[in-house]
Every structure is written in C-alpha cells, then in structure tokens.
Write a structure and sequence with these properties.
Two copies of one chain form a homodimer.
Chain A lengths: L1 H9 L3 H8 L7 H13 L4 H10 L4 E6 L5 H16 L3 E6 L4 H7 L1 H4 L6 E3 L6 H8 L4 E4 L9 E5 L1 H14 L5 E5 L5 H16 L6 E4 L5 H11 L8 E4 L2 H13 L9 E6 L3 H4 L5 E4 L2 H17 L8 E4 L2 E3 L5
Parallel strand pairs in A: 1-2, 1-3, 3-4, 4-5, 5-11, 6-7, 6-8, 8-9, 9-10
Antiparallel strand pairs in A: 10-12
Helix pairs in contact in A: 1-2, 1-3, 5-14, 9-10, 11-12
GO molecular function (chains A, B): DNA-binding transcription factor activity; transcription cis-regulatory region binding
Protein name (chains A, B): PurR protein
InterPro entries (chains A, B): HTH_LacI (IPR000843), LacI/GalR-like_sensor (IPR046335), Lambda_DNA-bd_dom_sf (IPR010982), Peripla_BP_I (IPR028082)
C-alpha cells in the first residue's frame, strides 16, 4: 500500500504518515516535512491517501460492461469515469457480454476487497445470479433495469421512447413499420419491442415485422434489412433498436437505391456519433449516455459512503427524439 | 478464495479439496463426492481451480486500453479475450487514455497479486514511467511499440503501410495528398506521418499538408476536412490515420458535394467495420486487430509460464491494403 512506501522513504512509521495525512497536531515538524517530501517524490495525492486511510476504501470500482464494442456502452463508461474521477475514484472494467462466468471472475475483485462497489450493464436475465454473487455489496445496474429488483438502476423509459418514434413515423404517413431488434435476454430489447407493438396497436396498423440482428454492429444491420426486403410486402419505415444497426440499414438501402426517407424511412436508437455522419443523417432517440453513467456512479457512491443500508431506487432519465434526414 | 468456500460447504479441509482437484488417489470416496457436489453447487470450474492451486496463479490479466471508444481498441481486446479464454484466463480492462495516474491506480492489481500480467496499449511516451511501475512483471505492449525498449510488443509496420498508400494514390494520378493525423505522443502517429513524408519525397511531390484531429472520432474527422478545404490549394487525396476520422472526412466531403474519389480520394487506416458502410465505401489499411490481441496474450502467457526470464521480442504482423470505392 502507498502509505507503507511513503513511510519507508521518509524513514518514519506508518502511524506518523497517517497522522500527517490526517493533519494531526502531534507530529514533529521535521517528520511532517519528511513525509510531505516523500509524498511529493512518489507523486501521490495526499487527499486521496488521507481519505483511503480514514475510510479503508480502495478508491476503485468495477464497471461490468455488456459490450465494449458498442459505442453506447463506451459513452456510458465515459460518464461513469467523469463522475468517479471527480470523487477520487478509478474504474476497472470487465467486458462481460452478459456472460456469467466472466462476471463471476471479475467479481472476485469485490470479495477480495480490491474494489468498493460495482456497476453492471448485464442483461436482466443475469440479475438473479449476480444477486447471489454480489449480495449486499454496493451495486448499481445501468442502462438496463428490473423494476421488481432490489438493485438500484439508472435507465430511460424504453417503452415510451419507442412509442413516440412510432407516432412520429405515422405522422409522416408511414403505415408499414418494421422493427430490427437484438437479443431479447435484455430488458431494453423487450421494452422497445413492447413499445413498437403498443404503437402499432394504438394506430391500428396491421403490418408488423420484427427481425432479430445477430450482433449489435453495422454488418448485422445491413444483413437484417436485406433479408427484410425479400418479403412480399416491403416496409415503408424501419426502426432499428441501435444506431449501429440503423447505420447498416441505411447502407443496405443505399446499395439497393431505395430512397430514404421517401420509399423507406429509417430511425435509430442511442444518439451516438454515427447518427450524425450517415448519408442521409439518421433520426434517432438520443439517450443521455454520459448522464446515465454519472448518475450510476453517484448512486453507487451513496451506497459506499452510507453506514446504514440505502433505499434502492430506479431512476428513469429523459430521452430526446432527434429528427434528421432519414425520416 | 474459492477453495475455502468449497471446503466449508463440503465440510472437509482445504487440503482435501486440493487433493480432489489434483485427482489424488488418497481421498475417501465419500469426501470426493462431497467436494464435487460443493463445486457444482457453487458453480465453479474444477479445471481452473486445480490449475490455480498448482500454479498459485490468479487466472486474470490486466489489459490497459488506450481508448475504449476507439473501435480498433475494442477489436484488439476481442483478440486478447479470445486467446485468454482458450487458456483459462479472464481479462480486466482499464481505459487509460494514456493517463499515467489511471494506469498507476490499475497497476495496483499487479502489485496486489490480483493479476498475473499486463498488456498495455499506452503511448510510447508513457513507457519509461510504466517501466518504473511494472518492473520485471510479465508485460506486453500492444499496437504501439518502441524498438529500443525491452518490453515485448506486437504491432504492424506503420511506416511501410503508409508509404504503400501514398504509392497507390500516386498510381491513380493523385498529386496533392493531405494527411489527417492525431496525437503525436503515440509512436503509430509519428510513424504514419513519417511514412507519409517519405512517400511524398520518393515521388517528388511538393504539396504537403498535415492536420491534427483533436479526438479519434467522426466529428473531429469532419472538422479536420472542413478546415483543410479552406486552404488556397485543395488536396486531391486525403489519408486519415484512422477509419473513424476517414468516415468523418467522407461525410464532410459529401455535404460539400465533392466527388469521391474523382475530385478527392479518401483512404483510412485500421480496417474496422465502418469502412464497409460509408458512402462511398472506404479504402483502408486493414490491421490484423484480433491477431494483434491474440499474439499479445500468447507472448504474455509465455512470460507468465516461464520460470526464467524470457527474451523480449518485437513482432510486426502483416497488414493489407483494401481498395474500395473511395480511392
């Protein structure tokens, strides 16, 4: 531990270092000077050291990301990092892809007291198993939630966001709206599908077509749209539940010389950078990615800092529909 | 540790668990059954447990990623994961963005014996400081290297790859080739600039224009090309040192109705998925991302498994030029 290194270099006891860090008046001036010089030489931050000493915290948390290749996840991680570093915390990441064995290995950091808490982005289907492993340790679930769970969460209301997109498409005269979805073991995928079906029903639309992409990437989106267009009746609008899928859809339609949005409108979900640079630019539901990460860390810190048990909460942050050229 | 949990649940000693895991004949059948039942109930993998017992390894390594928002980094991580899991290892990630303080915090896992080794993707400028912290522990540097360093590395030859692109552009009649580069604290950025300058010189080209993007993302690429086109003499080709920058360049040129590749050709670098779905599709240098990650892990495992010191090596893997519509 850093305090021991400082004590060694300063030639004083660990207790003396601790007293200096906690600004105790009982330290000789000469020893205080030695300790401060050692802290400087070793390039440590005295405030963080003092905090760790007082609290026996590690100053690290574990963020278990569902898919680091998904730009949405990377944007959420940036938010977690930003809020964590403001509070003197560092982040360790695990790319779980909602694989329980991966999660289990990384969670050894929690039982080994190497991290003070954990933020997960795992599929709702994994929550019961994770609950067994994580128990009562500080824990926030992020961008995916179970309203019936006792685990705090931060997310958006995926059902109402998707219903809103359907309303917007219907307003522009679209009547045959298809959905490109992904892995239904995630609650967000289930909820977006629910919002889609509710939207169709409310507008009395008969056409209903759902395709499931294998991966959350461009090429899977392209593959999905090519297979969709083989059906007898073509859609006049496509909602993809992620911007990377939607970018692949736009590419596939461009190659087939389908006019976007005249023949087929396209809407994505997430509001990541790619939505701004497709040709045409992509209409999308903008998720507050960084804010989701920031709030997840804030909720976690409350649990870490509290001496008694903290009431678990489910935060739903606001989303925005951004209309661009594709719809 | 897991073995202790198993012992507790099975009601036997840790030594007995160890003997079962190592298939020792000296265990009573009834105890063996109890241990196997406990392993099953706790959902552990007996093979990994046995290996960890034999070797006193943790079965975890730390991968310090330079930027998790960069799809190239995510692709390299997939390669590391693939090879690691084949060998019973799990990965912890740290998004360092070549920030030494972040790296220092995460490397506590190494001194705390929570990981057996470390793969870094940090900028060459950080290598001396990292060397101070990591010392003789198993360590491989990835996608960025210093030929004079004693740290093993896996990368491609960035100079010859960039020279090759210049040759290809000259062959199609291009004479005013501009470069969009990024952070020169990275060796790869220095080397690609060197390859560009060498290429211009070999062909006796007078036009030379280099712009530095603030970030490795689409919008910075778009911003860079818009500023480049304000110059009195326009380029007739642009090489961007990353595909995400190049995708932003294509978007900027599309908005200005510049014909690609007739008026201005565009070439990227990395060979990530985005290069296939831009309009027009992007010519690029394909890096063997997954293979870089796989080989980095293999080299690291050699160091972990060896009882004596292992000779450090610098591997350069082959790249490919993929010609698409943009050049």
């Amino acid at each position: 531990m850093s305090v021991q290194k400082i004590a060694k270099l300063a030639g004083v006891s660990v207790a003396t270092v601790s007293r200096v860090l906690n600004d105790s008046p009982s330290v000789k001036a000469v020893n205080k000077e030695k300790v401060l010089a050692a802290i400087k030489a070793l390039n440590y931050q005295p405030n963080l050291l003092a905090r760790q000493l007082r609290t026996s915290r590690t100053g690290m948390i574990l963020a278990m990301v569902s898919n680091i290749a998904n730009p949405f996840c990377a944007a959420v991680v940036k938010g977690i990092e930003r809020e964590a570093e403001k509070n003197g915390y560092r982040i360790l990441l695990c790319n779980t892809e909602s694989d329980l064995e991966r999660s289990r290995s990384c969670l050894q950091l929690l039982s080994g007291k190497m991290v003070d808490g954990v933020i997960t982005m795992d599929a709702i289907s994994e929550l019961p198993e994770l609950q067994n492993i994580i128990g009562d340790a500080p824990w926030v679930q992020c961008a995916e939630y179970d309203p019936d769970s006792s685990v705090s969460s931060v997310s958006i209301d995926d059902i109402s966001a998707t219903e809103f997109v359907i309303d917007q498409l219907v307003k522009t005269g679209k009547k045959r709206i298809a959905l490109i979805n992904h892995d239904l073991s995630y609650q967000y995928a289930q909820h977006r599908e629910l919002g889609y079906l509710d939207g169709l029903k409310r507008h009395g639309l008969a056409y209903c077509e759902i395709i499931y992409a294998d991966e959350l990437d461009y090429l899977s989106g392209k593959e999905a749209v090519l297979s969709l267009l083989k059906n007898a009746q073509r859609p006049d609008a496509i909602l993809a539940i992620s911007d990377v899928l939607a970018a692949g859809v736009i590419n596939g339609l461009n190659e087939l010389n389908v006019a976007i949005p005249e023949d087929i409108a396209v809407v994505g979900f997430d509001g990541i950078d790619i939505s701004q640079i497709t040709t045409p630019s992509l209409s999308t539901i903008q998720q507050p990615c960084k804010e989701i990460g920031e709030m997840a860390f804030s909720l976690l810190l409350q649990q870490i800092d509290s001496t008694s048990s903290v009431k678990r909460v489910h935060h739903l942050l606001p989303w925005t529909f951004i209309k661009r050229q594709s719809s």
